[in-house]
Amino acid sequence: MRGKWLLFAGGTLFLAAGGGALTYYLRQKPAKSVQVASAPALPPGTEVHLTGSIRAVNLVQVAAPLDGVAEEFPVKPGDEVFEGQILGRVANETLKETAHEAELEVERAQAKVNEAESQLIAARLEDSRAAADASRARIEFQRAERNYQRQQMLNTEGATPRNTYQKAQQDYEAAKKESDTLQSLSNTLQDRVQGVIKDIDLAKKTLAEKIQNLDSAKTSLSSADLLAPADGLVISIGKSAGEEVHKGMPDLITIATDLSQLELVLEPEPPVFKRLKAGQPAVVLIAELPGNGLPATVKSVENGKVVVEFSSPSTLVRPGMTAVGTLKLN
């Protein structure tokens, strides 16, 4: 009887040990990986609809003409502009000071011309009076000279009183002195008039030079204006008022010149991107244009972007708008 109990206890211990080992083995054994089948790829010819942004093809840049500070821009992105329109201005203090100084120089030169012309008027008036006095004195002298010559002849013949002869001689000498004096004064005033005329010519020459300098300064100052090189639409302005700009900065203002040729830029997911190629047809759907869309062509497929080119029949379509491109997978 005792042997049977020992056999039963040993069997029980064996079963318990075997069960524990099995449980440990199952816990330690790695689970088999389950392979999930990938979603079926879209078949060729499937249409995909991708949203993107419209951009212009033909762009022109308005560069900064000189170093300075941007002033207020009278235009903003989205505004239509015409060729020659002022889009903005670059303030340059050196040019302003040069132009201001040139204006002062012109004013000073003009004042000298005005002063010289006033002096000429006064000199000519004085010369005219002196010439008239000299002419009168010359006539008096000629009259006195003739009388003196007559009295001198009569005195030689003893046919005139000596007092009369002496009086004629005194009148002649006084008239000659006055005539010579007034004629000398007239000659002096005539020389003065010629001198003032020369001063005026020199002053006018100086004024012309100052005006030329002012024109050059104004031209330089006006070159600070930012002018539209062609009709178009303002796309972007690279600086704000008060910011510094440097000469030659190319993208200060960007203008689209032909809104009939546009592009739609799309960024599809990689699985779609790799099944598109350049040259394939597309359709561009724009909310602002009713209908079935505009025919288009894929221009490029690179760097994760798909560029679709199309022609727009309406000026309502502008760069920056959102549109949908419809393409078929290859």
Automatic annotation (TrEMBL):
Q: Give the main localization category.
A: other
Give the record's GO CC terms.
cell envelope
Gene3D superfamilies in the record = 2.40.50.100, Helix hairpin bin
As for subcellular location, the record says: Cell envelope
Superkingdom, according to UniProt?
Bacteria
Ranges in a coiled coil: 92-126, 165-192
Protein name (record): Efflux RND transporter periplasmic adaptor subunit
Keywords for this protein = Coiled coil
Query: Cross-referenced InterPro entries, in alphabetical order?
Result: UPF0194_transport
